[in-house]
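Posting here for the record, re: glycine.
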Amino acid sequence: MRKKEIITGILQQVTANLTLVVFTIVTAGVSSCAGQKKISGDSITATLELAAAQYRDMAAQLPEGRFPKTYYPKEDRFETSGSEWWVSGFYPGTLLYLHEELNDPQLREEANRIMEDLEKEQYNKTTHDLGFMMFCSFGHLNRLDPRPEYDEILMTSARSLATRFNEKVGAIRSWDSDDDSFLVIIDNMMNLELLFWASEFSGDPTYRNIAITHANTTMQHHFRPDNSSYHVINYNENTGEVKEKRTAQGAADESAWARGQAWGLYGYTVMYRETKEQKYLDQAIKIADFMLDHSHMPQDKIPYWDYNAPNIPDALRDSSAGAIMASALLELSEYVDAGKKKKYFSTAETAIKTLMSDTYLAEKGSNGGFILKHGVGHLPENSEVDVPLTYGDYYFVEALLRYKNR
Ligand code: GLY
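Prediction output follows.
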């Protein structure tokens, strides 16, 4: 081979290699550009500012001693509850999240004001919802500004919740009943975080053990072979036997009520965080995959109110289920392998983007001061249907902060 041909050959090879390198760089760029667009920090801040403005409006219309529950846009009717209703911790919790991010003393003052009314619920032994009520409020306050009086309120709340535990059933009673029925709902998984805190604070393992036993019993009886969950399990309080498996807020006994699936996902993710036991991570993954792989999960990732709602695709969506799911998936995505991480993170991202769109996000000065529209509370009872819900707002703000701070 002549010298010129050798040089030409080398040059051709170099050119080919360079082309390959350039192609690889360009396609890598294209694939990351073609991937999902991130939500900008600016748009999250703008959404949090809108949320704060909404909650300032809500504070102005809230009667003394009352807690926000929902708003009926058609009738322009703002509905409130007393502190004993299960949602009472979400309003102060949302205010504290917003204050933490925006450093607005007015939000913090309003949270403090309403928590004076909430404080007495630490003695309430008639509800399983003390985790929601006290940990989503005083739990945050104690995290932001630790004080012995908040520790005491949280410990008393944990003691009250623990009185509802039944050794024979191995669970915390959700709803009271007149006979030997012992009713446990999947939502109850959300009250366990308070118990883990109580054991860590006090050094007494009783609370943690109750949480673990409850989660194990729920894992055994609430889930179907496809990893969806029943809403209600009715146990015999004396023997622990399962008497019936049914729904209360879902479309049917055998259906997958969307918020219930989201509570389970969040609850088992917390179980894994607190115990590092693989079986809880596996359970959270199974729930996530049931939801995310479901043929009825919409492209925009806001679930229909029930995965088996009869009139899909015309069924109502539940923005609260979307918000809870998004927040839980952001945490779960931190515990799983790269493939699942991408799937969970991008689903959460899509859900958050959808909730930030005009379809779901309230216009300033509208929606009774709530942040999100289109939640479904209890459709079978025709109660709180297609309205804002305090827990939708709370988990939406949590999801925004989790997304922003990761
Ligand atoms: N814990 C009641 C609900 O999710 O509606």
